[in-house]
């Protein structure tokens, strides 16, 4: 098979699976775990899937206590590749080695980054990589001043670099045990560092570059002017709702914890609280935020903020009998169809995997099987979030495989996944045959 003739979407999926397989093999090596520790094959595979899909769900109860330094380095590299994307990392290495990037390669890169044109695509790759490494470096410095109080110098450096990469790439893997960041819930520097990294990673590289370049609201692209307000609304709204939902019954639930949880729920996966202690309404809000997720061309998952914006705008405009406009620009029917298609496919995927996991886990004696827990875990996997009720390590092999596939589905996106076996997917049909239009009764 000629790799150059393979459709771009399939190439991207193959690249992701190839790196996942390499990570799986590396985690199985004895050097990847500490003395006396052991990782099952299914757990090594799940961890590799979770890292490349920047999810953070783990079937290993304590990653920090299980993996050796080598294993943690492998995990860090997988998270970095997963966050930036295999294509971005590979092209950046090619640029660094001064290798030629041809026309076919540029088209592949354009598809991988979801760009409309391949013009300036190499320059964009360089900018994305440099910006990411710079932000992660600054984040590592912030973490260092936190961890140096509890660890020796070199361990603090390693912890800082790992958590900065994990936070910016919205992954959620941590090396602090089952409590995640709970022991640092009152540490202002850690909270600020983590939330800033998560937000920057979740708004997307295109928006970051747009803001740096233009520095004026009127000069920003329509994409940025949609992403920034929607992100702010979700963060503020999530904070207020969680605070009032939990704060009424629990006076110890602070505004900082509410804000941190609102931020991390948007596909990051860290936590300064025990998720299992939250009430049902708060869990529903978190599930909703996980489903929406981050923004396009970012390190996060979910249906994306622009999808939510397009659907809400379409519904409001339809109810008023007007065209769908955004900042005096008409939103095309194709864009609206994509938005509703992505959401429908996502809901269907979550529903299907939830039923599969529920069927597999229904007789489990390791934990109390409830619809709430299963739906939460499945939505977390789809949104590449990583938040959990703590039941992931206790899931059976079939459930772990189902969640692994769903993580890849959420990372690559529904449209990309469905285009793998249909080359005509999302393409306008050209035909000389004209059909009579029929209005179907809806509602």
What features would you describe in this structure?
This protein is mainly alpha-helical and 443 residues long. It has helices at residues 8-28, 41-52, 63-66, 69-84, 86-96, 103-112, 121-147, 153-168, 188-203, 205-214, 222-247, 255-264, 280-292, 305-320, 333-361, 371-382, 397-412, 414-418, and strands spanning 325-326, 329-330. The chain has 18 helices and two strands. The chain has one domain (10-418). 43% of the residues are buried. Strand 1 and strand 2 (329-330) form a beta hairpin. Strands 1-2 form a two-stranded antiparallel ribbon.
Number of helices: 18
Number of structural units classed as domains: 1
Give the class from helix and strand content and strand pairing. mainly alpha
Order of strands side by side in the largest beta sheet?
A: 1-2
Mean pLDDT: 86
- Poorly predicted runs of 5 or more residues: none
Q: Provide the gyration radius in Å.
A: 22 Å
Query: Describe the biggest sheet?
Result: 2 strands, antiparallel
Large-scale geometry: globular
Q: Assign a percent range to the helix content.
A: 55-70%
Write down how many β-strands occur, each being a DSSP E stretch of 2 or more residues.
Answer: 2
Provide the β-strand percentage band. Answer: under 5%
Q: SSE order, as H and E?
A: HHHHHHHHHHHHHHEEHHHH
